[in-house]
Amino acid sequence: MSAEHVAVAVVGAGIGGLVTALALRRTGVRVVVFEQTEALTEEGAGLALGANGIRPLLRLGLGAEMQRVAFQPSRVVFRHWRTGGVRQALPLGRDYEDRFGAPYYTFHRADLRRLLAERYRDEGGELRTGHRCLRVTPSADRVVVEFDGDRRVEAGVVVGADGVHSAVRTGVVGADRAVYSGRSGYRGLVAADLVGDAVDDELAFHLGPNRHLVAYPVHGGDTVNFLAVVRDPRWTRESWVRRGRVADVLAAFAGWSPAVTRILGAADEVSHWGLFDREPVDRWSLERVTLVGDAAHPMLPHQGQGGNQAVEDAVVLAACLRTWPDRPALALDRYERARRTRTRMLQRGSRHNGECYQLPDGPAADARDAKLRRLPEDMAWIHGYDAETALATSEGTHHGELV
């Protein structure tokens, strides 16, 4: 059976896959994106991108589009779980932008995904839905990608952007198991006018024993996204999500501040996610196949860097393929070496933050709150990072975890 040939096949039309495709399209490469769903739906939750993720999107000319759909919080606030009192508050907005060189935005994930897909298609990019990848078979001169429905494509390079359960990853690193964190999260979206000043224009963390809640406006500010994380040793199956019950998350946060119960109580429905990551691997690439985002380095949400790292991966990979168009193995090796150390540190930091967000009241929580005053300095290695400049200069400075 003959197969169509494309220069670069991107498997997965999430944030990382679409940014990869758009960046490659700008270089004149024929890239085709294959997405397993039949349509790019409006489903999804919130997503926060810091300067390290926004800066590459600005360079791709997406500034005006992002301003139309994003929200820019004025500050990040850490609140006591029961009283709602402010433990620490730090400015975002203009102060953040001046410090790190680009804005801090929050999005509904579907808004950002649609924006990227529209720009990619406007620039002549091809996106094929209804293509579920079954396997990839690399060789020295091409990669065969097999999809359900007895379809296949031959590509010069394949980029796996198909998430934590990536079929492309399996072809690169083998079958490895996701690692359950011992926590699960309830995600939901509520109308902003139903919660009043419980969120306002801030990125709010409510920190307490064995639980925490993160909430922020999205969709231009008319919707509030929340993630309520609980310790949950009972989760026994590897799965992204199942339907949750609002009553369960309200019971889990009984006795918390009125702002927390107001946010959770405004939800009509919630999804219940097991929070998984994977152990770092020694390689992401095999001959002409590589991985980006969660397919390469899935991380827990406690540092807010999953989407940002997918964007960083995408633009670095595109730059490497542009620099060595006729030497894909060298391009993929250079990409991986540029990204591996940083993403490993962020995977580890995300695990650590899940612990420190859920400390009981007492000396350890007080020490954490005191350290939060240094957050802009401690997080500068993350938010001030310029992935494209670091690649060009082969420089980059990494420091420690959040607290």
Automatic annotation (TrEMBL):
The keyword Oxidoreductase applies. Residues 6-345 form the FAD-binding domain. Keywords: FAD, Flavoprotein, Membrane, Monooxygenase, Oxidoreductase, Transmembrane, Transmembrane helix. One of its GO terms (molecular function) is FAD binding. Gene3D superfamilies: FAD/NAD(P)-binding domain. The keyword Ribonucleoprotein does not apply. Pfam families: FAD_binding_3. InterPro entries: FAD-bd, FAD-dep_Monooxygenase_BioMet, FAD/NAD-bd_sf. It comes from the Bacteria. The chain crosses the membrane at residues 6-24. Its cofactor is FAD. This is Salicylate hydroxylase. The lineage of its organism: Bacteria, Bacillati, Actinomycetota, Actinomycetes, Pseudonocardiales.
